[in-house]
Amino acid sequence: MTAQPVTSTLRDEILQDNFNHTLFSWSAQKGLNPIVVEKAEGVYLYDYNGKRYIDFSSGLVNVNIGHGNQRITQAVVQQMQQVSYVTPGCITKARGDLGKQLAAIAPEGLNKTLFTIGGAEAIENAVKLARLYTGRHKIIARYRAFHGGSYGAMAAGGDPRKLPHDSQQAPNIVHVEDPYCYRCPWGQQPESCHRLCVDHVERVIEFEGPENIAAVIMEGESGTSGCIKYPPGYLQSIRALCDRYGILLIADEVMSGFGRTGKWFGVDNYQVVPDMIATAKGITAGYIPLGALIVSDRIAEHFNDRVLWLGLTYSAHPVSCAAGVETLKVYNDENLLENAAAMGSYIEQQVQMLMDKHRSIGDFRNTGLLGCLELVKNRQTKEPMAPYNAKAADMGIMNQVAAKLKELGMYAFVRWNYIFVAPPLCITRQQADEGLAIIDKALEIADEHCY
What is d(CA 92, CA 96) in angstroms, rounded to the nearest whole number? Predict the structure, then answer.
């Protein structure tokens, strides 16, 4: 009978320590109400009051294998007992093992990896490497993409989180429109689409001078911008443009890599081979920070007799690499890619039934277990439930929806008029039904604001 007061006191102490002494990303610091997580297992988080939350966003779409897998713990402990750190000029077995595993799953011809600390660093080094290799300076990227929170990665993205830093953004980034079929910038309908989005990219290449463009960077599959799916043939056409003009293609697989889309990498769904893959998140399923830049043999060979002017203190950190080695084994041993594809198809079927019930669902875009519900006030006008880059005053309805999800026991990523559906790849049908039932209930709030 005395356990609850002790737990409540401990929870309050933890909460105050965090509020008093830490800062929270992407947030005004007052008025926050975070979950105080005590433990996590599988697809669930548990707070200090014993409440269980189904994690329908895999943390930040990175805990692909689920929470609390002790195989990773054991691999990390074993590595730390052997050697916890060496400089990047030294090598360890874990580094070589992970590099070999990545070469085995990457598209053909990408066999060498530069290890980084996370996704933003992978993007930063991809951009630098593209410029070193080509001798060109411009990078073409998409407006609705997010590539990381460092200056270079943030400038490469078009996500509005960069706007407060705009005056200091990295130079020579050129943005293009997205192939956002649900809200086509060219007013095209799917049945009459003439791939004006591809023509647009080629025009920008011509305007900027092909001889100046080092790389085009595209997500393997769109993530936080709303899971905007590439229309058939789009990514293949971008690859062809790059080949025509001698431009490198960088695939940002930070979020879409490691089984998230039902394939090892998002580009595998389009049979496209990029020149570089920048990735992170699922490489260790978020258990320990690690990023990777996987490059083509052609690029790697270029630096056989030239200095590779890239480096990080924690590149190829042995403990992180050991976590990565074991994580990749878990994907295979537990058939997580196959489960992601199967559960993605199942969720798509179930969401179709939700769309029949809830007129607030304008669109659902999904690949494997990387999906997003786009909520609208009217399906004909497509007026969003909250506008793009919504200010706090515009988020009233969606905040109510998000609060309801949390109240009912769901941890979910809600942004603007989007609800993301990206649970761990180990999710079962029963757990998917549990999560969708919570979304079903929360959507009743959104439906009240439809016309």
Answer: 7
Gap between the Cα atoms of 353 and 129, Å rounded: 47
3-state helix vs strand vs coil in the chain, percent to 5: 45, 15, 40
The total number of structural domains that make up the chain = 2
Read out DSSP for 365-387? Answer: EEETTEEEEEEBS-TTT--BSS-
CA distance 389 to 371: 19
Query: Reduced to 3 states, what is the DSSP secondary structure of residue 304?
Result: coil
| Same-domain check for residues 49 and 102 | no
Kindly state the tokens that stand for 447.
């439906």
Is 30 in the same domain as 124? no
**Quick one: tokens of 278?**
């920048």
Contact 106, 264 (CB under 8 A): yes
Q: Are residues 297 and 401 in the same domain?
A: no
pLDDT at 3: 43
Is the separation of the CB atoms in 109 and 187 below 8 Å? Answer: no
Q: Which residue has the tokens 């990514």?
A: 235
Stated pTM of the model: 0.96
pLDDT per position as a tens digit, 309-344: 999 999 999 999 999 999 999 999 999 999 999 999
Q: What's the CA gap between 96 and 357, in Å, rounded? A: 52
